[in-house]
Fold this protein.
Amino acid sequence: MSDEGKGRLVVVSNRIPLSKPPAGGLVVALDDALRGSGGLWVGAAEEVVETPRDHLVEHPADGYTKLSFDLTAADRNEYYLGYSNGVLWPLCHRRSDLIDFRPEYREGYMRVNRRIAGLLKDLLRPDDRLWIHDYHFLPLAHCLRELGVDVTMGFFLHIPFPTHTDLEALSQPEAFLQWMAAHDLVGLQSQSDVASFLAAIRRAPRGELLPDGMVSYADRRFRIASFPIGIAPQEFAEASVAIDGSDLIGPDRRGAKLMIGVDRLDYSKGIPHRLRGFESYLDTRGPDMPRATLLQIAPPSRSEILAYKEIRAELEQIAGAVNGKHAELDWTPIRYLHRNIPREVLAPLFRAADAAMVTPLADGMNLVAKEYIAAQDPDNPGVLILSRFAGAAEQLKSSVMVNPYDRSQMAEAIGRALTMSREERRARHVEARANVFEHDIAEWSANFLRALGDVRGPGLSVDAGG
Ligand code: ADP
Ligand code: G6P
């Protein structure tokens, strides 16, 4: 993905790894992509300020330029915690019951998007390509068009696209499509997300599916397609053998198989469902079924939000109850770590695990599923237990697929995974591995940028979005 002769690539996302190593699907993926391509990455500063500066601040970076914008405490509360993570996140993850609408959240969200649009207007040159990421910046392109900025703009949504019924939970559902229409290209994770988007366009009075495969909304035409995100599999595979993961885990699992779960502590990840499925396995396991330890690594995330405090309490309660019921002197069934773990440690742990449980109730893609596959020993691989509600399920079809709401199905899947013959494990892994290695992060960004380069053919309207 070269920049030559095409102007600069300017990437915008809320989260940018400034002082901390990347964790969370978006920064892991973009850091991998930009290290390969160069360009500029604009994101939020880590510390809030009293008065935001009127310019972007440059930070040291390797291979690409990092620039940050300031947020005030009110911005963080209203734009990031409030509207992005208290309204849009639950909306897109089928949890409209958790939406916390407050007028100041939407006002703060629009205020920050308008401010960033002003900062970008000063930065952008006419031949730059702007690539906007995720739900924090749904209206950014629209705000830029209103300021008269006419560069090519692409958008990628890392999380699921809401169904049209979920969209109705927004006070102004039509704004969502109008904001999307300000881009030249909209990228989504899965085919099912594209289907949801097209269904919303079909139902919208001002929306139309055009015969050339483009979509029109009001006075704009744009392209929409799925670009399933990948990982840097080779790096992950190399990290997985640098140290022996089984040496990292203490002795209190004698004779037990190792299962692993790694997720930000988020209600969309189905962690309580996973623990309950694991509990059912322990409750019903016959004498010929192995003991198992589930190592659950779940670092804190968005912990100021009530729903996140509640999921933490729920998880701790279930883990305590299951361990109280099933632990023995030499075996703790659930080991729960509430912290970040460096990639150099995660990868060997993945390799050491006989199975991984990736059980989201809704997830754009889920990189952990791909990382687990990349980390396996091809000769003696572990088994991926994967929710059918993860975007990754469209690609990793040879996984043991589960419905996380069905406890007994989860228990059965665990039993199957832990007793599966080596031959079957290898056959399943070979298929998944080919997919993860072939469709990697470099392919993802190259495909998106190629499509972005192609989309602005002659005749495409670039009027400001209505
Ligand atoms: P999400 O984007 O919703 O957080 P993904 O599974 O797509 O979910 O991406 C999560 C990324 O964050 C993966 O690259 C994963 O390895 C990383 N990650 C998750 N938990 C941890 C942790 N405890 N420590 C370090 N990295 C983590
Ligand atoms: C998901 C979202 C990203 C977000 C990440 C971590 O991957 O798609 O936009 O950065 O979660 O969440 P956080 O709120 O910590 O940025």
Summary: Residues 9-230+442-458 form a domain with the Rossmann fold fold (CATH 3.40.50.2000).
